[in-house]
Design brief:
Layout lengths: L9 H11 L4 E7 L2 E6 H17 L7 E5 L4 H12 L3 E5 L5 H10 L4 E4 L2 H9 L9 E4 L10 H4 L2 E3 H11 L2 H10 L5 E6 L9 E5 H15 L6 E4 L6 H14 L2 E4 L6 H8 L3 E4 L1 H17 L2 H14 L12 H22 L6 E4 L6 H10 L3 E7 L4 E5 L18 E4 L9 E6 L6 E2 L3 H7 E2 L2 E11 L2 E7 L4 E2 L5 E2 L1 H9 L4 E7 L6 E7 L1 H10 L7 H5 L2 H15 L8 E6 L19 H7 L1 H7 L2
Parallel strand pairs: 1-11, 3-4, 3-5, 4-8, 5-6, 6-7, 10-11, 12-13, 13-14, 25-26
Antiparallel strand pairs: 1-2, 8-9, 9-18, 14-15, 16-17, 17-20, 19-20, 20-21, 22-23, 24-25
Helix pairs in contact: 1-2, 1-3, 1-10, 2-3, 2-7, 4-5, 9-10, 12-18, 13-14
Length: 607
């Protein structure tokens, strides 16, 4: 059990943290190669000034502030500044094209939007006619900001100006009054779902929801005030929110903001955090990076790596406390010769816990990193559950499951109508969200009789939850067989050469698939084989590349039941793209859109 948390909202907790730990470093931000520290006192003071600045601009308690930016200190200053005056923060993905930005900013009734730079500002300005409620655009980085017409210029202020405005307002009493009124049941945050099956929905998250999810996360991950974290996944996603704002403010632990999403691996090596969160695509990329590194090295090192991996593979799921002396010696030898250097290469040598979540991950990828000695565990949660609600216990990992539920979560598994094993996971607890903004029908569908219907079909295996698939994604073949596409897709994505696999099986005689290669790893392989190519398409269309992917699919099929074997596949000649509506901002595949776009190629598989 973790220590009971104070009955305080997140902004009130920030004020208390600043009083208790004034000189302790809360945040470090990397600018121009230098890590600049900010104490809890500075964090609270700057957030207070920004909040007062928002109030001076006319934002009332309960008003909505949008943020479109990569992760940086200004993101959390704006978020906590809004919270300190009783306003609500709405995150918008910085990778979203203008129509998506327009939809979220308009639907969420955002009155003031904070934009990182000119690129994000232009997206908002493009959509201005559709945003009648928008009063002000606050820009963080003014470099290169072009000159605007006077009526547009009147809409724009800089982040520094708003902070100064708040500092000069002498209106600190406003914050005291807002915090005195604030209750745990007030909405503090709105997080828009990724929209993989339709328009994104705005999930309303209360301060109570945030406070309720923290004990389970802290307990399961073994977090403390000494924990250090590198924040780089989008802060408009609940997974990053729980590790950048919820837990650190309640615990007093440290958050690091790197220079950019593109410098993550370099930042990781410099920070060497004690905790790391990577979505499956990040782990797949690190896996591919190590595969490339091993392709480039000499035969002796490749042989040593293969021997070390084979020798330590049985330890991947075995708790360290149960290792025999011989197993400890075997791992120590592998660590000294190979694993230590690879852990340094990916920046995770100091990690006490590493986690993957937000989407299914190939079990072979989890096994790979655990064999390397990276303490990778799989966790599960939803926007609607305010983040993580299940996760492996660090000393009891069952690969292929997402562990038992965390502290404070009640759950049950609804029976399936056809009597098949498993069923939809239902959960209850203070972490269950308030509802969808301006969408009572979807709220009533999600929360029934007090239970949140997750939409995920699960089975319980020895007290561990195993995700089978999304309820809506389960497919029935022409022969009446039920298939879980995610199991097939994840098995295939365990190959470093396959980046995406989209299964086609609904109403079909056999399983087909659309496959996207990993351009980097397949490119390195092609160079080693002296295969000429100039771009993505020319590489994909080479006969030897098709043979390579065919062999990888054959290896994947060997791990699956006969009915789930991919019999035919089409290699995509371009990467799936967010701008083309093929994937969401969080890189989740939009099946319906892809089936429509590649209808001709799919029909050719069954011709």
């Amino acid at each position: 059990m973790t220590q009971a948390l104070p009955e305080l909202t997140l902004p009130r907790m920030l004020r208390q943290r600043a009083a208790q730990d004034a000189a302790r470093v809360a945040i470090r931000q990397k600018d121009y190669g230098i890590w600049k520290p900010f104490t809890w006192a500075q964090y609270h003071q700057r957030a207070s000034h920004f909040g007062q600045g928002l109030a001076t601009l006319g934002l009332a308690p309960g008003g909505h502030v949008g943020i479109i930016s990569e992760n940086r200190i200004e993101w959390v200053l704006a978020q906590m500044g809004a919270g300190l005056i009783g306003a609500i923060t709405v995150g918008v993905y910085p990778t979203s094209p203008s129509p998506e930005v327009a939809y979220v900013v308009g639907h969420a009734d955002i009155e003031i939007v904070v934009c990182e730079d000119q690129e994000q500002t232009d997206k908002v300005l493009e959509a201005l006619p559709q945003l009648p409620r928008l009063k002000k655009i606050i820009v963080i980085e003014t470099k290169g900001l072009r000159s605007f017409a006077p009526e547009v210029r009147a809409l724009i202020a800089t982040f520094d100006e708003v902070e100064r405005l708040g500092a000069q307002s002498g209106n600190a009493a406003l914050i005291d009054a807002a915090l005195a009124r604030q209750t745990l049941d007030d909405i503090g945050l709105m997080i828009y779902t990724s929209g993989s099956t339709g328009k994104p929905k705005g999930a309303m998250i209360s301060w109570r929801n945030m406070r309720a999810v923290v004990p389970g996360i802290v307990d399961r991950l073994g977090l403390s005030r000494e924990t250090t974290h590198l924040s780089y996944l989008p802060l408009c996603h609940v997974a990053e929110q729980m590790l950048t704002t919820f837990c650190p403010i309640y615990l007093g632990s440290q958050v690091n903001f790197g220079e950019s999403i593109r410098t993550v691996q370099e930042d990781l090596r410099e920070v060497a955090p004690t905790m790391f969160l990577g979505v499956p695509r990040i782990w797949e990329k690190l896996h591919a990076a190590i595969s490339i590194k091993m392709q480039e090295t000499g035969p002796v090192r490749r042989w040593l790596f293969a021997r070390a991996m084979a020798a330590c593979a049985p330890l991947a799921e075995k708790p360290r406390r149960d290792w025999t002396l011989a197993e400890r010696l075997r791992f120590a030898l592998a660590y000294g010769t190979i694993f230590r250097a690879l852990q340094n290469f990916i920046g995770l040598r100091e990690a006490k816990v590493a986690l993957t979540g937000a989407a299914p991950i190939p079990p072979d990828v989890v096994r790979f990193f655990r064999t390397l000695g990276v303490p990778l565990i799989e966790v599960y949660g939803l926007t609607e559950s305010t983040g993580m609600i299940t996760g492996h216990q660090r000393e009891h990992v069952v690969i292929g499951t997402v562990g038992p539920v965390t502290q404070g979560v009640q759950y049950r598994i609804a029976e399936q109508a056809d009597g098949a094993p498993g069923g939809e996971l239902l959960i209850k607890g203070d972490m269950v969200f308030v509802g969808y903004y301006k969408n009572p029908e979807a709220t009533a569908q999600a929360i029934r009789d007090g239970w949140l219907h997750t939409g995920d079909v699960v089975r319980e295996v020895d007290g561990q939850i195993k995700i089978v698939d999304r309820l809506k994604d389960i497919m029935i073949t022409a022969g009446g067989k039920n298939l879980t596409p995610s199991e097939i897709e994840n098995t295939m994505k365990g190959s470093p050469y396959i980046k995406e696999c989209i299964v086609v099986a609904e109403g079909r005689k056999f399983v087909g698939a659309l496959v996207q290669i990993d351009y980097e790893t397949v490119g390195k392989w092609a160079e080693a084989q002296r295969i000429p190519f100039t771009h993505f398409r020319s590489l994909v269309e080479h006969p030897q590349v098709r043979e390579l992917i065919e062999a990888e699919i054959g290896r994947g099929n060997a791990q699956l039941a006969q009915v789930a074997h991919i019999r035919r596949f089409h290699l995509l000649t371009k990467e799936l793209d967010h701008d083309d509506g093929e994937v969401t901002a969080t890189m989740k595949v939009r099946r319906a859109s892809i089936y429509q776009t590649y209808a001709t190629e799919i029909e050719a598989l069954y011709a």
